[in-house]
Amino acid sequence: MPEPTNPQSAVGTVAVLSRLRPYVREALPRIYAAMVVSVVASAVALAIPQVLQWMVDGPLADGDPGPIWVAAGIVLALGVLEAVLIGARRALVLTPGTHVEARLRNSLYRRLQNLPVAFHDRWPSGQLLSRAVSDLNLIRRWLSFGLVLLVVNVLTIIGGAVILIALNWVLGLIFVAAAVPVILYSFSFERKYSDVARRSQDQTGDLATSVEESVHGIRVLKAFGRGRYALKRFESQAEQLRGTEIEKAKAIAGIWLYLTLIPDLAFGVCLVVGVWLASTGQSSVGELVAFFATGTVLLFPIWSLGYFLAMTLDAKTATLRFFEVMDAENTIIDPEQPAAVSRGRGELVFDDVHFRYQDAPATFPDLVDGVSLTVQPGETMALVGLTGSGKSTLTALTTRLYDVTGGSVRVDGVDVRDLALDDLRSRIAMAFEEATLFSRTVRENVLLGRPDASEEDLREALNIAQASFVDDLPAGLDTKVGEEGLSLSGGQRQRLALARAIAARPEILVLDDPLSALDVDTEALVEAALRRVLATTTALIVAHRPSTVALADRVALLENGRITAVGTHSELLASSAHYRFVISSFDSPEVPATEEVSR
Ligand SMILES: Nc1ncnc2c1ncn2[C@@H]1O[C@H](COP(=O)(O)OP(=O)(O)OP(=O)(O)O)[C@@H](O)[C@H]1O
């Protein structure tokens, strides 16, 4: 995962959390209302000791039991009112937090969809998963609960301190003086806790990545008997996270110690001084009762400050992690004024194209180092080269999965960067060797690129891809496949992925070795049917087998980042030693020749 863009402690908590404002705006009225209701609840709680003072200094001192019942009734009514207000506060904050969480999650998902493949190359999926799930959960809990109670508790403590000073300024000031060491400690707590919270959330993401990887790779792990090894790695990561969680708990325990010990000590001192004041007649017993009853009301808000402060810092870290994704640079975006060109004939031109991956060492030459190639409208061009020569990379440049670093790719004379992305990707359809299906029905998977395609088009695409096996699935086209659905074989998946590209009815088909998992007979059938489509569609096909090359009108040879020969298969066989070398490697796939070997 790339380093966070903002060092944790360098950015203030308020500044970070206030970045959530656009997502929280609609929820703010209810959050403010919850704060007001809570402040009133606190005021009600603080009023009870005043009634007690009146009772002790009045009816009790006078020995008149009559008004005591009135006072008890008032205390009871205040208690009930406080409970009702607390219930109202809960009702007010329950739904807005969930709305904000949903809004943040949708924005994050949209962003993840928009960010270029280069971003996803660098970010482990678990880090994204933990941001989308646990971080947003932390933000929701803080908004619905932590924020309101933190603000209300601070206001309650300030209000309570004013009442304590008003009741007895000497005792009140002793109480207020006790806040100084607590505030000082809070600063060091913030620094310490922010760091450990960040580590904990990052380690949660790493753990999610490990789970995701081992679940995805479960067959490999089992086949190689590496389950124990994977478990060991996981255990050590889990242990690391456990250690961090303990560090977090210790930091919270530290501030709780301050928050319980110091007020208790302050009240101890107040008790001694208060008794002396009362015994010397400088204070009434009712005043003392009210003072300590008010102090007791303040104890919970004081103790809970540590918890809510920790919650706020967790939310700050979660917000930082959320915005690391939202702020990630996206260069593959729609042009400001997309070219409005009607569908053309499907000419595909690579014009002196250069490309290098972001993390490629500076001393390495460009992976695609000046490719110039024209695929004529309706022509089928096979792309051949040693493994690792950059064939897949070159095909990825056509739909802007990556952007060229030099030169241009043009469709019907228009630079692909001048077309709206949706437009470009409806003109060019791709099928990859790694056929990815989603946990949806066969129909939805095949119609991913053109959901409004007719039943006839869908059937035709399935026929061309020789995917009639779908009719034997339990619910036919409505059978759920993919990760959570029925498992299909590699060849079946590839055929569905090919059908998906065909059903999209593109101007240009880009096929990255889409038949590699098929048996020879099925491959021959697919190829025969594919010829019909290829007769009218421009196609660029990465070929690893002679039979795929046979589909093509011409073949382009990719060598050392350049197209070094273009011609028919027999022309290249006759003229290019490197082509003969590459073709000869097709026949011995178990020992594939690589670009490195060639160089
Ligand atoms: N996302 C990436 N980030 C960095 N390097 C990459 C990335 N994808 C591929 N590469 C590197 O680029 C080179 C070309 O890869 P590419 O997949 O384009 O080759 P290929 O010719 O299609 O290979 P094959 O025939 O084995 O499929 C390889 O050395 C590979 O390691």
From TrEMBL:
The organism's place on the tree of life at top rank: Bacteria
Primary site of residence: membrane
Domain named ABC transmembrane type-1: residues: 33-314
Localisation: Cell membrane
Topology in membrane: Multi-pass membrane protein
Gene Ontology MF terms in the entry: ABC-type oligopeptide transporter activity; ATP binding; ATP hydrolysis activity
GO cellular component, one term: plasma membrane
Pfam families: ABC_membrane, ABC_tran
UniProt keywords, alphabetically: ATP-binding, Cell membrane, Membrane, Nucleotide-binding, Transmembrane, Transmembrane helix, Transport
Domain ABC transporter intervals: 348-585
InterPro entries given in the database record: AAA+_ATPase (IPR003593), ABC1_TM_dom (IPR011527), ABC1_TM_sf (IPR036640), ABC_transporter-like_ATP-bd (IPR003439), ABC_transporter-like_CS (IPR017871), P-loop_NTPase (IPR027417), Type_1_exporter (IPR039421)
PROSITE patterns given in the database record: ABC_TM1F, ABC_TRANSPORTER_1, ABC_TRANSPORTER_2
Residues spanning the membrane: 27-48, 68-88, 142-163, 169-189, 255-277, 289-310
Statement: the UniProt record of this protein carries the keyword NAD: no
Family the UniProt entry places it in: Belongs to the ABC transporter superfamily. Lipid exporter (TC 3.A.1.106) family.
Alphabetical list of PANTHER family matching this protein: ATP-BINDING CASSETTE SUB-FAMILY B MEMBER 10, MITOCHONDRIAL, ATP-DEPENDENT PERMEASE MDL1, MITOCHONDRIAL
Protein name per its UniProtKB record: ABC transporter ATP-binding protein/permease
The species this protein was found in: Herbiconiux oxytropis
